[in-house]
Amino acid sequence: MADSWLPTLVTPTAEAGFERAAKLSPRRRESHPAIE
Q: Which residue intervals are annotated with compositional bias (Basic and acidic residues) in the record (predicted)?
């Protein structure tokens, strides 16, 4: 799904989205260790 564009859209806005995703789904954070 959206995972395909995550690595390419590492922007301040995207990072904010990752922070929210990390809170909602900690597992998602672990699956993308490069995105922190």
A: 17-36
Q: What does the pLDDT read at residue 17?
A: 76
Q: Give residue 7's pLDDT.
A: 64
The residue with greater pLDDT, 35 or 21, is 21
Helix (H, G, I), strand (E, B) or coil at 35: coil
Q: How far apart are the first and last CA of the chain?
A: 20
Asked whether the beta carbons of 2 and 27 are under 8 A apart, the reply is no
